[in-house]
Design a protein that fits this description.
Helix content is about 80%, strand content about 0%. By secondary structure, the chain is mainly α. It has one domain. α2 packs antiparallel against α3 and α3 runs antiparallel to α8. The longest helix has 27 residues. The protein is globular, with a radius of gyration of 17 Å. The mean pLDDT is about 85.
Length: about 260
């Protein structure tokens, strides 16, 4: 691609900051970052957008994972099997990402935006109390965690937006975790899926490094701040912020999708 206009780069940097903050608290930062890349870099291929999004995201998830670990101390007996399965799933998903066409991209992103945004609205109090199912580290508990890791990891490698939210929702709904510990485990698993995808994308030359590093730096700041807010204040304010941002992208991407098929 040709050089990125400074104004576009600034807007993408702001998207990276917001994505890191939201992803650290409630998950779904890719719902901000990937549509922003889609709108800001219309000449990029789908796999370039996915790869660049992963580079930006891994910076934020690394910092937020460390912050959560230090402040929440999540149980690694579940987090590590979850992350290992997610890594394997993401490797497979990233391998099929090259098959996506530009025509497929907008409708898929729009569908994910609608599902995750709608689910967030419908379940505003989900995960407020922790009621673990199958025990904390029993065989059934770990088996469900591995299945979650494989399924969500495969999705993240192939597409990605909303992965953090899917991890959180799955851990809360299927295993009964409270929101805060689910978020901590989700960050560790999301770090694994981002790393696995980059293992595929970097050797293929798909990453737009200038954009990805700028967004990554902003993601670090957002991820650190978001993780601290999540631990200190909970997620009510950020959920509202998340829904508002997702709604804005639904309008923009929805309009582009209508034009695409009109």
């Amino acid at each position: 691609m040709e050089g990125i206009e400074p104004g576009i780069l600034v807007l993408l940097a702001l998207a990276g900051l917001a994505a890191g903050f939201v992803d650290a608290v409630v998950g779904g930062g890719g719902l901000i970052q990937l549509p922003a890349l889609l709108l800001g870099l219309p000449g990029a291929s789908p796999v370039q957008l996915l790869a660049t999004n992963k580079l930006g995201s891994i910076c934020g998830t690394t910092v937020s994972s460390i912050t959560y670990f230090r402040r929440v101390r999540p149980d690694l007996r579940t987090a590590f099997p979850l992350a290992g399965a997610a890594f394997i799933g993401s490797l497979g998903g990233a391998s099929v990402a090259f098959w996506f066409s530009k025509e497929m991209f907008n409708p898929i992103i729009l569908a994910v935006l609608l599902v995750v945004g709608g689910y967030t609205l419908a379940r505003p109090t989900m995960g407020q109390l922790q009621r673990l199912r199958f025990g904390r580290v029993g065989k059934r508990h770990l088996a469900v965690a591995v299945v979650i890791g494989l399924l969500v990891g495969s999705y993240d490698g192939a597409l990605g937006p909303g992965t953090g939210s899917f991890f959180v929702f799955a851990l809360v709904s299927a295993l009964g975790y409270g929101f805060l510990e689910a978020s901590a485990k989700a960050k560790i698993a999301n770090l694994a899926t981002n790393l696995a995808a980059l293992v595929v994308f970097v050797p293929a030359g798909a990453v737009l490094w200038e954009v990805g590093l700028v967004m990554g730096a902003c993601n670090i700041v957002g991820g650190y701040l978001g993780a601290r807010v999540a631990v200190a204040r909970g997620s009510r304010f950020v959920r509202l912020f998340f829904v508002l941002v997702v709604s804005a992208f639904v309008l923009v991407i929805g309009w582009e999708t209508l034009q695409q098929f009109s």
